[in-house]
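Researcher: We're reviewing a set of sequences before deciding which ones to prioritize for further study. For each one, I'd like a predicted 3D structure that I can look through quickly. This is TTC37 protein. If possible, include the structure in token form so it fits the rest of the review sheet.
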Amino acid sequence: MSNKEVKAALKSARDAIRNKEYKEALKHCKAVLKQEKNNYNAWVFIGLAAAELEQPDQAKGAYKKAIELEPNQLLAWQGLANLYEKPSQTDVKGDLADVYQKLLELYKSGDKQKWCDVCNKLVELYHQEKKYLEVAETWQKLIQMRQEEGAEKAELHQLWKKMIQLLKDSTRNQDNKTEQLLLTAFEHAVNSADTVPGEDHQNLYKDFIQCLSKFPHEAARLEKTCNDMMALYPTMSYPLEVLCLHFVNSGNLSEEALHCFSRLLEMDASNGPGIIGFGIKCLQDKKYKEAVKSLTEGLQKTNQCPAAWHYLAEAQVKIHKYRNAVLSCNQALEALEIPEGPNLRWKNLVLRLKAETLIKIADPDAAEEAIKALEQIVDANSDPVISAIRGQAYLNKGLMDEASKISQELLLSHPDVAESHALDGYIHYSQKNYEQAERSFLNAIERRAETAEYHQYLGLTYWFMSDETKRDKGKALTQFLKAAKLDSYLGSAFFYLGNYYRDIAGDKSRARGCYKKAFELDETDEESGTAAVDLSVELGDMDTALSILNEVTEKASPGTAKWAWLHRGLYYLRSGQPSQAVADLQAALRADPKDSNCWESLGEAYLNRGSYSTALKSFRRASELNPGLIYSIYRTAALEQILGKYENAIAIYQQILKTTEDYVPALKG
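Model: Here's the predicted structure for TTC37 protein, in token form for your review sheet.
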């Protein structure tokens, strides 16, 4: 076959393909290849025809042969791209990407439009495969090409926006290079917008800030972007909100952070992050109740802020609301979905605070929960303070051997840590080894004198050690006073001060003040409440006694606060108000239906009211619960007599006289 015939055969093959006569085309090509086995066009036409005849393997082989012959010719590469793009071709995406890369190389110096088309296709392919770095790098080349071509600002703006759209899901992958390219795209898009200020530009800025807030190491860029947006949109609260939450979550409570909190509240007094910021400021200023109030309010509006939950728990611990603090710690842990980077730091802080708080609740179940919390802390074993908390948890569970083992290890390995000595003190105190406890608490105080709890425990050690140390003003009293001064919310310190002033100093007025303060700090402390009421009565100050009792009974749910109902009922009984006495004593019995003395008092109230039958039932119930209550048995007989049941009355009088021969009321009866 001459050169002329080869050309003719190739023309016939081209015409056959144009006419969709693919088999005919193959015949012509094969004829050419018999003569010239390295004919580029013949191999390309075979690829085309085989592809149309659904013979992909043959087509692929033909194109590859052509490429082998002429690597920098376009036709075979284009054909291979068309073949791989067919829906029937699966598992060839990697090969197709390589083909597109080659086409970009071949088109670069020639057809710019085709270069852009292939670039778009390649980006789409990478995006489907979630290869975000390749998406970013390829799209950036496209933008660069358009810039070199002199594209308008508006077109470039749309291209940067498209790049943001393509990479919006990449933030989950945490690839630093992709992240930087995405942030660069945001910067270009924000700076190339036409309408500034405008709604689209505003939304773009918002997305940029939201994106930056996902990357903890981009703190400086986030702060700058928020400030830039605030300068452009001074009435918008969004950038300020993000900045405030950033400061909260980073634990940065600088002057700048505090300034942001107050600016946000000036803009919107009901703004969640702003109120949270104000709460943190209160916590810093040791205004703990205000801190709890503000943080609680702020978190009702912005509840996915683990750091704020931690600050709330911290404030609740400061005012000894331990159970509330544990709930806040649990909320913080829920909000910490991904415990990585700074979140891991917060998780460890929250778990530690939770464990410390559970120790303060001081029951075995709380101790068990504390141990579980400590087990979740990363690198917990290297921290002596966490070991000391674990030791206290074992002590609260009654596991003395485990607690002692930790204590001994800590004293050897960390003798300079206050918690090592405090744990030793708690163990000796629980075993009533008061002299060793004294030594340990003094050592703890020497290392950290500002801890109220150490002073309180040293005071208690002196209180129980001996009569001498209890009475010595420089011992128990001094330590209780120091504890109360260091922690003005420590109700138990005021309770023990009350005990000292009442039992040792004989100063009822001062004792009453201490008990009242202790009860105000902890309304569940019945001992302090009872002591405050009793001393008020002894001091003839019924108004104070009643105000305490009224406050407790107003808040009490049914079946609770027996002591308050009983005290007020007895007051009404003594002051000739039997109906009120009946109501209060019934409420006291709802809390404790087996209190014989309370039944006796209720009987007395009914009797004074003239309700003889119900009085009889109450006295009878009292004597059933406690057969030693002679007065109730006597009242039962007297009421039987009043109600005309003389035989019953005589029998009961005789029963009394059998056990108590000279009981005058029974003899008279």
